[in-house]
Amino acid sequence: KAKNQGRGRVETYRDGMMEEAAERQFFEEELIHAVERGQLELYYQPLFALPGRRLKGFEALIRWNHPDRGLISPADFIPIAEACGAIERIGAWIIDEACRQVGNWPRDLYVSINVSPIQMRSPAILTQIHQALESYGLSPRQVEIEITETAMVDNSEQIAATLAGFRALGIRVAIDDFGTGYSSLAHLREFKVDRIKIDRSFVGTVGHDASADAVVRAVMGIARELSIETTAEGIETEQQLEALVKLGCGTAQGYLLGRPMTSERAGHLLEAAPSNILAFRLEANSGT
Ligand code: C2E
Ligand code: MG
Ligand code: MG
Ligand code: MG
C-alpha cells in the first residue's frame, strides 16, 4: 500500500517508525528510574468474604505517577517493564511496599501481590518475600501471590521450584484471570495452588447467561473438590454478586464493593470502620 503512495510516503512511514522506537527507548529509560524517583504507587482494592461481605484484605495494583503523562495504568507499562528488564527492580519494590503496608493493617487482613512470570523464573523473589516478612514482622498468612496462567506455561521446572518455595514460606498462591489462559485445568493438576481468581470476562455475564453460569459453576465444583478457594473479580452489579453467592463463590472483588484506592484512603477507612464492613463498603465506593 505504501508503495502505491510514492516514495515520500514510504519515508514518512519510516521516520514515524524511528520516532516510535526513540520514544519507546525514552519511555524505557524513564521506567527504569521510576522506582528511585518515587513515581510508582500501589493502589489497594478490597476483597470481601461471601456471603457476609466481611473485609478479608486488599489486592495491590500498581500505578505510575508520570510527571508529564499523569497516572499510567499497569497494562501500559508492565509489559514494557518485562521486555526491558525493569520488572526485576519494580517487582522487588512492589513486594517490599505491599508488605510494608499490610504491616500497618489489622493482622487478620492480607495483601495480594501480582507477580510477573519473569519474577517467577528466579529464586530472588523468595529472598525478597522472606526479607519483607522479617522486616515488617509479618505472618506468611498476611501475604498472597497472584500469578497468571501464562507464568505457568514455560519454564515449568523453575516455576514449580518457586511455587514450592512459597509453600515452604507458608505463602498462599492464587491463579489470576483463571480461564483466560491455555489449559487452565492442566495447571490445577500440575501445580498446587490455594486460590482461583475467576476472570472478569466470566463474571460479567453471570446471572444473565446460562452458559456463563454453567462455566462458573463447573469451576466452583472443581475448586471445591480440590479444596481450592475462589475469588470472583470484576463484580459490578448486585445481580452478579447474588448469582456468585448462589454458585458458592468464597471471595468477591469489584467496583460494586470497592474500587482500587490509595494506601492513605485504605488506612483512613480501616481506622474509621475496622469492624463495620457495610459502612466501609459504602465509603469505598465513593472513592477513585
Ligand atoms: P488483575 O490482577 O486481574 O487486576 C484486576 C484489574 O481489574 C485491575 O486493573 C482492577 O482495577 C480492575 N478491576 C477491578 N474490579 C473491576 C470491576 O468491577 N470492573 C472493571 N472493569 N475492572 C475492575 P488494573 O489495576 O488496571 O490492573 C490491570 C492488570 O495489570 C492487573 O490485572 C495485573 O495483571 C496487572 N498488574 C497490576 N498491578 C500489578 C503489579 O503490581 N505487578 C504486576 N506484575 N502486574 C500488575
Ligand atoms: Mg491480580
Ligand atoms: Mg485478575
Ligand atoms: Mg483480570
Element order, helices and strands? Answer: HEEEHHEHHEHHEHEHHEHEEHH
The bound ligands are:
ligand C2E, magnesium ion
Distance between the amino and carboxyl termini:
45 Å
Judged by helices, strands and strand pairing, the structural class is alpha/beta
Mean pLDDT: 89
Taking strands numbered 1, 2, ... along the chain, how are they ordered across the largest sheet?
A: 1-2-4-5-6-7-8-9
β-strand amount = 15-25%
Number of helices: 13
Largest sheet: 8 strands, mixed, barrel
What form results from the Cα inertia axes?
A: globular
Low-confidence parts lasting 5 or more residues at pLDDT below 50?
1-8
Question: In terms of topology, how is this protein built?
Answer:
Elements: H1 7-34, E1 40-49, E2 54-66, E3 70-72, H2 74-84, H3 87-102, E4 110-114, H4 117-120, H5 124-135, E5 143-148, H6 149-153, H7 156-169, E6 172-178, H8 184-190, E7 195-198, H9 200-203, H10 210-225, E8 229-232, H11 238-247, E9 251-252, E10 261-262, H12 263-272, H13 277-285
Parallel strand pairs: 2-4, 4-5, 5-6, 6-7, 7-8, 8-9
Antiparallel strand pairs: 1-2, 1-9, 1-10, 2-3
Helix pairs in contact: 3-5
The chain binds ligand C2E and magnesium ion (MG) (3 copies).
